[in-house]
């Protein structure tokens, strides 16, 4: 019979690994992603990042609705200072991360600007089949009360 402490170590190692999920976009999937983020961050002891990370993930995943194919992959992983989110889709169109505030009375265009405000770093990487939009959130940004 295995030693109990060995089983606990295996569970901890699994929880410390990045989490990646492939799914079809629909608005109710966003709540599932928020629950996954909350559970994962609490396991990592990053309670302070739950709200902001959930918000950023919702914004990143919501953009998939603009793609022709609504299949996407969401990933969350630890970094040295916090957490990294990645949303991979099949749209070849690279999005531009706004550096200036958009027209807040307009019908769209605010999401990625808000992501850039909440995140420590944000970017877009082309892939052979589409793109990855990523954002990193760090504990230092939350602790100081400042967002980049």
Major sheet size, sense and barrel closure: 5 strands, antiparallel
Strand percent estimate: 25-35%
Distance between the termini: 51 Å
**Order of strands in the sheet with most strands:** 1-2-3-5-4
- Mean pLDDT across every amino acid position: 82
Gross morphology: globular
**Fraction in helix:** 25-40%
Number of helices: 5
Q: How is this structure best described in words?
A:
Strands 1-2-3-5-4 form a five-stranded antiparallel sheet. It is globular and about 35 Å long. It is an alpha+beta fold and 148 residues long. Helices cover 38% and strands 26% of the residues. Strand 2 (71-78) and strand 3 form a beta hairpin. Helix 2 runs antiparallel to helix 3 (50-62) and helix 3 (50-62) runs antiparallel to helix 4.
Relevant terms:
148 residues; disordered C terminus; 5 strands; alpha+beta; single chain; globular
Can I get a quick summary?
The protein has 148 residues and is of the alpha+beta class. It is built from 5 helices and 5 strands. Helix 2 (27-43) packs antiparallel against helix 3 and helix 3 runs antiparallel to helix 4 (111-118).
List strands and helices in order, with pairings:
Layout: H1 4-16, E1 19-24, H2 27-43, H3 50-62, E2 71-78, E3 82-89, H4 111-118, E4 121-127, E5 130-138, H5 139-143
Antiparallel strand pairs: 1-2, 2-3, 3-5, 4-5
């Amino acid at each position: 019979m295995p030693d109990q402490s060995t089983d606990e170590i295996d569970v901890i190692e699994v929880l410390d690994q990045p989490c990646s999920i492939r799914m079809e976009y629909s608005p109710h999937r966003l709540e599932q992603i928020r629950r996954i983020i909350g559970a994962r961050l609490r396991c990592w002891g990053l309670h302070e990042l739950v709200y902001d990370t959930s918000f950023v993930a919702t914004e990143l995943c919501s953009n998939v609705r603009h793609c022709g194919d609504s299949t996407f992959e969401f990933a969350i992983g630890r970094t040295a200072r916090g957490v990294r989110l990645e949303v991979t889709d099949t749209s070849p169109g690279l999005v531009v991360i706004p550096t200036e505030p958009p027209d807040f009375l307009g019908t769209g265009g605010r999401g990625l600007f808000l992501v850039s405000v909440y995140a420590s770093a944000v970017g877009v990487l082309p892939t052979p089949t589409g793109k990855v939009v990523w954002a990193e959130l760090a504990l230092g940004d939350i602790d100081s009360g400042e967002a980049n």
